[in-house]
Automatic annotation (TrEMBL):
Its main location: cytoplasm. Gene3D superfamilies: 3.40.50.2300. Belongs to the low molecular weight phosphotyrosine protein phosphatase family. Residues 2-152 form the Phosphotyrosine protein phosphatase I domain. It comes from the Bacteria. InterPro entries: LMW_PTPase, Ptyr_pPase, Ptyr_pPase_sf, Tyr_Pase_low_mol_wt_mml, Tyr_phospatase_low_mol_wt. The keyword Cell division does not apply. It comes from Algoriphagus aestuariicola. This is protein-tyrosine-phosphatase. CDD domains: LMWPTP (cd16343). Coiled coil: none annotated.
Length: 161
């Protein structure tokens, strides 16, 4: 089983949407049994909460199922997940500190847009303080990034579909 964790700040906008897109894609590929995915936030701001209403609306517009409660990244995540993927540089920096603190210095953490050639180093922008259009923007960014991520891991793990 390949385990993938998407991480943002609040775990109510970007990372739950990323998880929903990822699940939709692996289901379409018939690969659901090969993967486990989840999402988490670096902050404790929205623990136990449903995704932001705008995230839910966006997911519904795109025909995605979204079913998540906010939670904070914890020590066992570094042990359990094969791919821990940050949405922006700030999340990445926080994850780098946490892996030292939790004593997983060897664990590699990834930046979501680094999987797309030409998008290296770019953020999935935080849509929280913006309008609804920001959610459609991150949907498109996430869709392309996850498509590239899946292409890469299918190759790495030799999953032929
Ligand atoms: P997310 O967006 O990190 O994509 O879930 C945010 C959600 C909440 C806050 C910031 C960003 N907040 O400050 O509460």
């Amino acid at each position: 089983m390949i385990k993938v964790l998407f991480v943002c700040l609040g775990n109510i906008c970007r990372s739950p949407l990323a998880e929903a897109i990822f699940n939709h894609k692996i289901q379409a590929l018939g690969l659901s049994r090969k993967f486990k995915s989840d999402s988490a936030g670096t902050s404790d701001y929205h623990i136990g909460e449903l995704p932001d209403e705008r995230t839910i609306q966006c997911a519904q517009r795109k025909g995605l199922k979204i079913n998540h409660r906010g939670r904070q990244v914890n020590r066992t995540d570094f042990r359990d997940f094969d791919y821990i993927i940050a949405m922006d540089e700030s999340n990445l920096t926080n994850l780098e500190s946490l892996k030292e603190k939790f004593n997983f210095p060897e664990k590699e953490v990834y930046l979501m847009r680094d999987f797309v050639t030409g998008w290296e180093g770019m953020p999935v922008p935080d849509p929280y303080y913006g309008g609804e259009e920001g959610f459609d923007e991150i949907y498109h960014i996430l869709d392309a990034s996850i498509e590239s991520f899946l292409r890469k891991i299918k190759e790495v793990h030799q999953l032929y579909v």
